[in-house]
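Reviewer 2 asked us to include a model.

Predict the structure of this chain.
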Amino acid sequence: MSLAVFWSDEATETFDSIVLLIEIKWGERQAEIFVKHSQKILSLISNQPYMYKASINSSVRQAVISSQTSLYYEIHDGYITLLFFWDNRQEPIL
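Predicted model (structure tokens):
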């Protein structure tokens, strides 16, 4: 069973800024690779939403996209909300 995936405004904003940063620092090709890998992770989450570890709140989960980037998402009845993308090199959220 595949769940619908909805992007929050913050998820869209943080994803776009990470893609732009990758494009500026490492080029368009690396940004495309990141986008494709993110799409693969989103497909996995849609089909198996509990496959990634729970975060501080049990309804929020963290998917590691790369060693530098994680995705935080929340599972609801029948759908998933992408909360935000996080640069793992930043200070942790408290």
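The helical segments are 9-26, 28-47. The mean pLDDT is 91. We have added this to the supplementary material.
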